[in-house]
């Protein structure tokens, strides 16, 4: 069975969304969501990045990150997948409750079910790259390898790290 997700409010898989309220501590700062972190990395080292970090909502962070009137880092297309991998890994290592949800998906495919994004999701044609889904599945594999299985066959939970 393929697991589809999109909105942060969906139960139980809304936590897979970058808009979910699961903050991360990366690069010496607390980021309210992985969307805040991802969008700010387009402008790393600038005041605009900090402005994005402080955005009130992930939607606002996304809007600010898509503002092409600000100069975006030149290597963005080359590094964006690594930025997303780092953010997603931090999120699921930080929050044991959602790490357990991710691990509980077993070996199922995970797909971001959005018609508007052919890169991060499956897109309108349902043939998109689904890079966010792929990153989630890779993160799941790494978490499983890192935490192994306890004697009763259940995956051990990652420790919760508070900001």
Can you offer a commentary on this structure?
The protein is mainly α and 163 residues long. It is built from six helices and four strands, in the order βββαααααβα. The longest helix is centred in the middle third of the chain and has 19 residues, at 76-94. The chain is globular and about 40 Å long.
Key features?
mainly alpha, 163 residues, globular, 40% helix, two-stranded antiparallel sheet
SSE blueprint and pairings:
Blueprint: E1 3-5, E2 24-26, E3 29-31, H1 34-40, H2 47-53, H3 58-65, H4 76-94, H5 96-103, E4 110-112, H6 131-147
Parallel strand pairs: 1-4
Antiparallel strand pairs: 2-3
Helix pairs in contact: 1-2, 1-3, 2-3, 4-5, 4-6
Q: Judging from the principal axes of the Cα atoms, what is the shape?
A: globular
Report helical residue fraction: 40-55%
First-residue to last-residue Cα separation: 35 Å
- Which strand order does the major sheet show? 1-4
Overall average pLDDT: 92
Percent of residues in beta strands: 5-15%
Number of helices: 6
Q: Say how many strands there are.
A: 4
Assign the structural class, choosing from mainly alpha, mainly beta, alpha/beta, alpha+beta, or little secondary structure. Answer: mainly alpha
Radius of gyration: 16 Å
Order of helices and strands: EEEHHHHHEH
Low-confidence stretches: 150-163
Give the gist of this structure.
This protein has 163 residues and is mostly helical.
